[in-house]
Amino acid sequence: MTLTRRTFLAASGAVSLTAVLASCAGFSKPATSSAEGTLTFTTWGTDAELKGFRDQISRFEKANAGATIDLNAVPYEQMFTNIDAQLQAGNPPDVFRVPYYTFGSYAGRGQLLDLSDQLPGDFGDRFTRGAWAAVQNEGKPFGVPHHTDTTAILYNKTMLEAAGITDVPTSVEDAWTWDQFDEVAATLRANLPADQYPFAYNWQGNGVTRWLTWLFEADGRFLDENLTDPAIDSDAGRKAVDFTRSFFEKQYVPQNDSIKSATYAQDSWYSQTTAMVFSGAFSIPDATDTLDFEWGATFAPRDERSASDFGGNALVVTKDAADPALAAAFLDFVTQEDAMRAFCEGASLLPTRQDLIDGGIEFDVRPELSPVFIGQAGTVQASDSSQVASPDMAAIITVLQDELEQAFVGGQSTDDTLSRISDGIAAATGA
């Protein structure tokens, strides 16, 4: 079974901010230049992503005549249940794909291979600082940042123009401020019928970590600089909760756009229930194939600063992989410039290599939208993403889901929400 992009979005609730800010640890051993042996590799993916993986595997095997990569593609819903069971039983795959926001839990449990002695000495230099931080644990790399994705705004041009909104930001520096975004939403609300809404936000499921973007835009944190104690009960935290709860109070979003909703934000935009949707770049091909209205993309709003979620996935090697050198050679290969460019352009995903960010890529579908998502990804700061690398992030996600749901649709006050999130984070981290 493979996933379309649309069902993949619903299945994954995927991803948000991630990673640990750590030193760019050096390496002492070059990657194997002529590899042989067999690797097992487990992943999920859309059709385009799986095609990209198969193409890269074929190229790697041709370049290394003695090497074989056995690809096991599974549905996202089964991916980590299977991985966890295999790790417990002692028979995991050699390599697997993992969202950045769950990377820390595997590295923290000692289930991944420290790659410090397996990759070239300058390996980390190829990536952006935020991307390289995303695969660190206690200052050491336990994976490679294969690609990223981030959230921008897709908008229905007809619905915006009908409300008189024709000036849409074309650079990240000119993105709407929170006040300007509120004005845009209020204008849409006044001009749309009651059963249509200004926008929907993609914070359903594990995508709740995307709410943290608002906190970071307000220049706040949810963990302190030591990454051990809660820091969300602050002026910035209060501002972020107040502003995002106002989306429901002012009927800017449908009531079913809450954190625990079974309806995903993308679906309301597809059906033209909303004029805008916060979305990742990987939704572009489905939108192009299925929508019959004119649409575009623009940047997420900014407050004290711009920020964004660092979505996407890393590739990791399990601790007891039979051939660490072969696994490292494969990871080195798929993160080289030509390989990453081909994968990201074909799957409408964002590169993690600094040279590809600087030079830009062009998606195979709607290439003119590539700069929007690359520019949005450039607002990710490692000081933000470092907080999501905690091995306790899974528990923190549950706290955010429970308390933000109550704040948005359960009538819970901002003060109570911040206090309960703070207590939940402290319990999760043992602070």
Produce the secondary structure layout.
Blueprint: H1 5-12, E1 36-43, H2 47-63, E2 66-73, H3 76-89, E3 95-99, H4 100-108, H5 129-133, E4 136-137, E5 140-141, E6 144-149, E7 151-156, H6 157-162, H7 178-191, E8 197-200, H8 212-217, H9 235-249, H10 265-270, E9 274-280, H11 284-290, E10 295-298, E11 311-317, H12 324-334, H13 337-347, H14 354-359, H15 370-377, H16 382-385, H17 393-409, H18 414-429
Parallel strand pairs: 1-2, 1-3, 8-9
Antiparallel strand pairs: 3-11, 4-5, 6-11, 7-9, 7-10
Helix pairs in contact: 2-13, 9-17, 9-18, 17-18
Account of the protein in words:
This protein folds into 2 domains: about 5-150 and about 310-380, Periplasmic binding protein-like II (D-Maltodextrin-Binding Protein, domain 2, 3-Layer(aba) Sandwich); about 150-305 and about 390-430, D-Maltodextrin-Binding Protein, domain 2 (3-Layer(aba) Sandwich). By secondary structure, the protein is α/β, with parallel strands linked by helices. The protein is globular and about 65 Å long. The model is unreliable at about 1-35 (pLDDT under 50). The strands form 3 sheets. Strands 2-1-3-11-6 form a 5-stranded mixed sheet, sandwiched between helices. The chain has a 4-stranded mixed sheet with strand order 8-9-7-10. A two-stranded antiparallel sheet has the order 4-5. The protein has helices at about 5-10, 45-65, 75-90, 100-110, 130-135, 155-160, 180-190, 210-215, 235-250, 265-270, 285-290, 325-335, 335-345, 355-360, 370-375, 380-385, 395-410, 415-430, and strands spanning about 35-45, 65-75, 95-100, 135, 140, 145-150, 150-155, 195-200, 275-280, 295-300, 310-315. β1 (about 35-45), α2 and β2 form a beta-alpha-beta unit.
